Amino acid sequence: MSRTTSSASSVASKSNEEEAQPASNGVVRDEEAAIPQGEKQLQAGEENRYLVKFKENDPTNPRDWKFAYKVWITIQLGFLALAASTASSIIGPAGNTIAEYASVSREVSVLSVSLYILGFGFGPLCWAPISEIWGRRWSILPAFFILGLFSIGTAVSKNAASIFLTRFFAGLFGSAPVSNVSAALGDIWDPKVRGSAINFYGIMVVGGPTIGPVIGSALLVNPSLGWRWTEYITAIWVFATFALTVFCLPEVYSPVILKWKAQAMRKETGNDAYFHPHEQMKLDANSILTKHLSRPLRMLFTEPMVTCIAFYASFVYGILYLTIEVFPIVFEENRGFAPVVGSLPFLGLLVGIILFGTTINLANEPRYRRISLAAKGRPVPEARLPPMIAGSLIFPTGLFWFGWTAGPEYHWAIPTVAAMFIGGGFNLIFQQCINFLIDTYGLYAASAVSANTFLRSLMAAGLPLAAQPMFHNLGVGPASSILGAVAVAAIPAPLIFWRYGLALRKRSKFAPVLED
């Protein structure tokens, strides 16, 4: 991407840090929303340095780019997230084949999926600080390219150890777009309309695992292809997306753009007084330990809202990956369907994710904007909860429905429709959990979301390992009922936050609550 060097308004300041600025109403916004605007003049006698900022309607400000261009960027970011998330499940249908080839048990072969998801948990610890220092492109695109290389590594593997190891590192690098795309969307979209963009991103992230098994099954049954082509296709997809985005995706992180602008202005004018604080930011072990490791873990264990929301989001996320192992039991083993036909009910999950998630989540956006404006533009986390409450009812309904109509005596369409309820309930819960954490914790939202990402990856890595013994030994109905009972027990969670959320935020050390 070419670095923009057009003139910008500059201001004088002796501040060496600009992580966030108060909004016009006095509320400190989250990091993504903290884009410097306007001008301020130094008082007499202060250091004569010129802090480069965006001017009003600045063409170099990502928030001021044309709507169509921002949509194009959003589509590219969605493609990155879709490719990485699809790679997590595309190898799932090959479990039996891999078990036979690598001489391991069927349960052990599930590690080809679980270790990829485990990499999702550890990856953000690397990509988040890189994103904050060098920008979104450097934190996403190189790692995304390496995902393609490790996918090839899996495809040419000769034993179980190499398959599992390359899958873990594929997930580690594949987590870069999944974890950083939401921040990139925050860089270009105003908070009032960000919900629609995040909804699109959410569909890409959670839709990928539902289409992966369908693609994988089609490759597996083709005698000219086989299980290795699940990874070759992944690599081709990744490299094609990389080729598009490396030329078309601009840098969107404002501090990096302003750093470039300051460097260009010094070169153009010969005046070394032009600067931006981001030029002084360095990646060091201390910031990684305190900001990206210890703080998320501390919030996970000391903040009741983070703990509860993270466990709830992690549970439903784990169920999504559990279906990768459960659907073949229901539709292939019990009903005798061929692999491709037996994978088609995954599309029921996708339809539910799109249908319920899009309609209910987007329907809540105008309501949220009205409540936020009434609160002087401040984020109102409790206004995010109605879709989550709806999802908390839809999700267990789908689990019970699926479990007790999964038998071959029932028409295949009945549990497939139940899968729509599982997918729709999942999307409503999962997306609003993320939105709730971002609205609640402001500047510490990245740490809260990191805690959620880490826990959900552990849960999603572990549950598929338990699927085979659990559903074979207990039966599909009882096993689904146990999971449904857990989902029912979690129904009060959003209602409690609806009633006591403000009080909990006032007691928090990390959640900013300003009194009128």
Automatic annotation (TrEMBL):
Listed Low complexity bias regions: 1-14
Places the protein is found: Membrane
GO MF term set: transmembrane transporter activity
Entry GO terms, CC: plasma membrane
Source organism superkingdom: Eukaryota
Membrane topology: Multi-pass membrane protein
Keyword annotations of the record: Membrane, Transmembrane, Transmembrane helix
Domain Major facilitator superfamily (MFS) profile: 73-516
InterPro entries with a match to the protein in the record: MFS, MFS_dom, MFS_trans_sf
Transmembrane segments: 71-91, 111-128, 140-157, 163-186, 198-220, 232-258, 305-324, 344-364, 385-404, 410-430, 442-467, 479-500
UniProt main location, coarse: membrane
Location of the region described as Disordered in the Swiss-Prot/TrEMBL record: 1-40
Protein name: MFS general substrate transporter
